Each structure stands twice: as C-alpha cells, then as structure tokens.
Amino acid sequence: MSGKNVTEVRLADAAGIAEAARILESGGLVAVPTETVYGLAARADSAEAVARIYAAKGRPDFNPLIVHVSGVEQARTYAEFAPEARALAAAHWPGPLTLVLPRRQDAPLAPAVTAGLSTVALRAPAHPAMQALLAAVDFPLAAPSANRSGFISPTTPAHVLASLDGRIDLVLDGGATTAGVESTIVAVRADGSVDELRPGPIAVGTRGGGGGIEAPGQLASHYAPGKPVRLGALDAEADEFLIGFGAIAGDCTLSASGDVTEAAARLYACLHQAARAPQPRIAVARVPEQGVGRAINDRLRRAAA
Ligand code: AMP
Ligand code: MG
C-alpha cells in the first residue's frame, strides 16, 4: 500500500479503474484525472486513508479536503442542501463547481476531511475516469490536487510523478486535463446567499469575495514554482523565462490567440516548464480579468507571493 516506494501508472481504462478501486478500498492513494487538475484520492470515510493524503502531500492539517461524490443524491448524505444549493448543483453538476455546505452531524466522513469545520466541501466531477471510479466504490473520495503542498498543481501524469513518485500507490493516466485550473468554490449560507471562496472555471452569481478564515487553504503563497515570479510583463529580462499571452509570445505561451479558456488549460504546464527552465526568474504577460481569467490571475498572484 502507501508505504511502498513504487508508484504504478496505468491507463484509466476498465482494468485501471478496477485496480484503482481495489487500492482505494484498502486505504491506499490514487491520483485520478478530473476535468480541472489531477486529484489525489483516498476514501473519505477512513481516518487512516485521509491521514495518508496529508502525509504524502505534506499538507497542513488545517486545510480541509474536497469530498468527491457521484451526484447530489450521494452528496445529501454528507450535507444539508438549502434550495439555493440544490439549484446550483442542478445547474453545474457534474462539473468544476465545489459547494461548501453545512455538514450533516451524522455524515460518515473522517474528521480530518473537514479539518474540524462545521461545513463540508462537495463536488461531483464530470471527468469519465473519476465518474467511473466513484461508480465502482461505495464511499466518497477525498481528493486535493495531486502535488506536494504549496507547489504547482498537476495537469498531466508526469506532473504528478514529478511531485509524488514513490509516495502514492497509483496514477490513473487520462492524459492532460482540460479545464486546467481548480474548481470554483462557493459557500451557500443558511440564508441562501452565495459567497465565492475561490474563482475557477465556472462563474456563479455571488455577492463576491468570501473570507480567508473560512477557506483556510487559500494561503497567499501557493502554486509556487520555486523562483521569483514577475506579473504583467511586456517582455523578458535576460535571466527570465517568459510565459506569454496573446501578442506577447513567450518561452511558453498560454494562448497565442488571447483565449482565456486555452490559457487556463495551459497554465500549470507553462509553470512546470518555467520551474524546470535554466532561467532563475519567471515573467508572465498580463492575462485579462475576464471569465476564467479571474481564476488564472488568482493562481498567478499566489505563485508570485
Ligand atoms: P485543493 O483540494 O488543494 O484544491 O484545496 C481545496 C480547497 O477547498 C482548499 O482551499 C480548502 O480551504 C477549501 N475547502 C475545503 N473544505 C472547505 C470548507 N469546509 N470550507 C471552506 N473551504 C473549504
Ligand atoms: Mg491544491
């Protein structure tokens, strides 16, 4: 299990899903593609399995995990769904939207999943591999991004291995992920109002910025490539790796046509390439604050912090 130091990589086909389900059943760790980034999954009802996630990632224990479910029916086992929450789930699930809701007292979840909060974060992902896995097991999956805590999120199996090889049991290979940035997180209050805790691929009408206190994982420094990052660059200094956008062509370009959706899908691949490059510093061209551009700029600000 997770103690061994060989991480297997398998295609996310029927046989791969079946093996992943067996490993998860016995408390192991499996990296799984979702439509956002690769997640590091463990059974959310087992304290030992959840503890392995925190250990493998070096994740601080005050940073709660998102619980992945097959749909709203399963989700209602774990949280109270106000009408507004039900409407959001109906509109956006399966998909890259995480709902932070009041946790049910009797929810069969390991306490570490919610880091002692009275709320729980729930998401029903759309990726066929994650859906097949959730259908193959009879427990929900706690799954943060499959990288060492604080570093760049993974959008390919190679990114996962660069961070976690030997620390997890299996990587299910579903190729590169499509949305590229982590799910939108919103909290639905008792009065039905909705606060955005993290921008992401889905825009939800909210009354705007939630508190950092409630989303304890939203640390100022995150997604760190391990070298200084300069934002809003028009061109590169001699010692900088340039991440370009639109008319500003870089050593890696997010989207030559200036498309923010394409830029989101390429963001972490460019940051991984920049981290590995010989240049000691990174410069990034301006990305417009439109659509998923808000999520890209949120991640870039944390990478630069
Ligand atoms: P990650 O799994 O790395 O994408 O991070 C999950 C994010 O969800 C973290 O930033 C957490 O702070 C946030 N989160 C998870 N559970 C809750 C919760 N109950 N309340 C607020 N934020 C949460
Ligand atoms: Mg993460």
Short descriptors:
305 residues, alpha/beta, DHBP synthase, ten-stranded mixed β-sheet, 19% strand, globular, binds adenosine monophosphate, binds magnesium ion
**Overall CATH class of the largest domain:** Alpha Beta
Oligomerization category of the chains in this entry:
single chain
Report the radius of gyration as a whole number of Å.
19 Å
Helix share bin: 25-40%
For the record, give the distance between the C-alpha atoms at the N and C termini, rounded to a whole number.
36 Å
Overall average pLDDT: 94
Provide the domain count: 2
Q: What would CATH call the architecture of the largest domain?
A: Alpha-Beta Complex
Using DSSP, what is the number of strands?
14
> Which homologous superfamily in CATH is the superfamily of the largest domain?
DHBP synthase
Bound molecules: adenosine monophosphate, magnesium ion
Poorly predicted runs: none
Q: Major β-sheet, in short? A: 10 strands, mixed
Share of residues in strands: 15-25%
The sequence of SSEs as H and E is EHEEHEHHEEHEHEEEEEEHEH
What is the topology, as strand order, of the major beta sheet? Answer: 1-8-2-3-7-4-6-5-9-10
Would you tell me the structural class of the helices and strands? alpha/beta
Number of helices: 8
Describe the structure.
The protein is of the alpha/beta class. It has two domains: 8-207, DHBP synthase, CATH 3.90.870; 229-304, no CATH class. The protein is built from eight helices and 14 strands. The strands form two sheets. Strands 1-8-2-3-7-4-6-5-9-10 form a ten-stranded mixed β-sheet, sandwiched between helices. Strand 2 and strand 3 (38-43) form a beta hairpin. Helix 1 (14-25) packs across helix 5 (128-136). It is globular, with a radius of gyration of 19 Å. The two termini are 36 Å apart. 50% of the residues are buried. The mean pLDDT is 94. It binds adenosine monophosphate and magnesium ion.
